[in-house]
Specification:
Length: 329
C-alpha cells in the first residue's frame, strides 16, 4: 500500500546546467535552495537584498538590480541606534551609515552583474501580506521593528501580483529572450496570520503563479515546494522545533525533488563528482605526514583538475588550493 499522496509535476522543456547563470530571490526557502546550489558549484547569486517575503518587494528588487541602482544615505533611516534600509534584511543594518551603504552596494553590484547575464531566475514567494509605510505609501520589505502604527498592513490580490509581474517579465524577457523563470511558494507557514489567513495568503500566491504560467507558457514554470511539504510529507516530524520551518530532512527531500526535475543526468553526475571530492577532503588521516596520505591528496588534485578540464566553467579552485595547503603541512 502507498501511504503518501505524491505530487506530480510535468518535466520542463529545459534543464539547468553548471554553465548557466542564475539568480535566486525571495523567502528563506530561496536561501535554503540557493545555498545548496552554490555548494554544488552552480553559478548563481542568492538574495542580494537578504530575505524578501512579499511579491512586490521581490519585483522592486529585481528592477533595481536590472538598473544597477546604488543606494545613498537618503535611502536609509535611523532607528534604535542603527541605520537601516526598508528594502533590505536586517543583516545589512549597521551603527554606521557608511558601513551600511558599503554592504548594500557591494551586494547590489554583484547582483547587477548576475542579472545582466541571466539564464534562469528562481523566485520564492513567502506571503501575500504587505506592509505599506504611511509616510511614503511604499511597500516595505522589512519593518525593522518600527512601531506598527507607522504602517498599513493589507493582503495583495491575485490581479495586483499578476499585473506587476507581467510588466516585470516582459522587461526581463526583452533583455534575456531565453530566460526561464521558476516560481515557488515557500512551505513556511506564517502563523501570525492565523492558519486560515496563512492558507488564503498561500492560495493567492499559487493562483497568481498559475495565471503567470498561462500568460508566459514558454518562460514561466512552477516548482511545487509548498505542495510537497503540505501533501507529500504532511507530518510534524518534517518540521523544525518551531513547527513552522521545514526540517533539514524536509529541505533535503525537496532539494532531491528539484534536482530530479530541473537537472539533467549529466549535471547530477557532475554534482556527484564534486560531492565525492568534498567528502575526500573532509577525510581525517591517522598521520598527516604519511606518504600514503600525500598520495591520497594527489589523487584528489588529479581528479579535481580532470573535472575542471572537462567542465571549464566549474569553480573548483578552492578545492585545488586546499589540497596543496594540506600537502605542504
Amino acid at each position: 500500500m502507498d501511504f503518501r499522496t505524491m505530487i506530480t509535476c510535468p518535466k520542463p522543456d529545459f534543464s539547468i546546467t553548471h554553465s548557466d547563470r542564475g539568480l535566486l530571490m525571495g523567502s528563506c526557502f530561496a536561501e535554503n535552495i540557493g545555498t545548496l546550489m552554490v555548494e554544488n558549484k552552480f553559478c548563481c547569486d542568492v538574495n542580494p537584498y537578504g530575505i524578501l517575503y512579499n511579491p512586490l518587494s521581490v519585483a522592486k528588487a529585481l528592477r533595481e538590480l536590472t538598473l544597477g541602482k546604488q543606494y545613498e544615505e537618503s535611502d536609509l533611516f535611523f532607528f534604535q541606534e542603527c541605520y537601516h534600509s526598508y528594502m533590505h534584511h536586517g543583516s545589512f543594518s549597521s551603527l554606521s551609515s557608511k558601513e551600511c551603504l558599503d554592504g548594500i552596494n557591494a551586494r547590489l553590484q554583484k547582483g547587477h552583474e548576475a542579472i545582466s547575464r541571466l539564464n534562469y531566475l528562481i523566485i520564492t514567494f513567502g506571503t501575500s501580506w504587505v506592509y505599506i509605510l504611511k509616510e511614503t505609501g511604499e511597500v516595505v520589505s522589512n519593518c525593522h521593528k518600527l512601531p506598527a502604527d507607522y504602517f498599513i498592513r493589507r493582503r495583495l490580490n491575485v490581479q495586483e501580483i499578476v499585473s506587476d509581474y507581467s510588466a516585470l517579465i516582459n522587461d526581463l524577457i526583452e533583455r534575456h529572450s531565453q530566460l526561464k523563470i521558476i516560481f515557488t511558494v515557500s512551505p513556511i507557514r506564517h502563523l501570525k496570520d492565523g492558519l486560515h489567513g496563512n492558507q488564503i495568503s498561500k492560495a493567492t500566491l499559487l493562483l497568481a503563479i498559475s495565471e503567470l504560467q498561462d500568460l508566459y507558457p514558454e518562460s514561466v514554470y512552477n516548482f511545487p515546494a509548498y505542495e510537497i511539504v503540505i501533501d507529500e510529507l504532511r507530518d510534524y516530524r518534517f518540521y523544525a522545533d518551531d513547527m513552522v520551518h521545514p526540517s533539514s530532512v524536509a529541505i533535503q527531500y525537496i532539494w532531491e525533488a528539484f534536482t530530479a526535475l530541473y537537472f539533467s543526468k549529466e549535471t547530477r553526475a557532475v554534482m556527484k563528482e564534486c560531492d565525492d571530492i568534498h567528502k575526500s577532503l573532509a577525510h581525517k588521516p591517522f598521520r598527516k605526514q604519511s606518504e600514503e596520505y600525500k598520495r591520497f591528496l594527489m589523487q584528489i588534485v588529479l581528479k579535481t583538475e580532470r573535472l575542471k578540464e572537462k567542465y571549464p566553467y566549474l569553480d573548483v579552485q578552492k578545492e585545488i588550493e586546499l589540497c596543496h595547503i594540506l600537502l605542504n603541512q
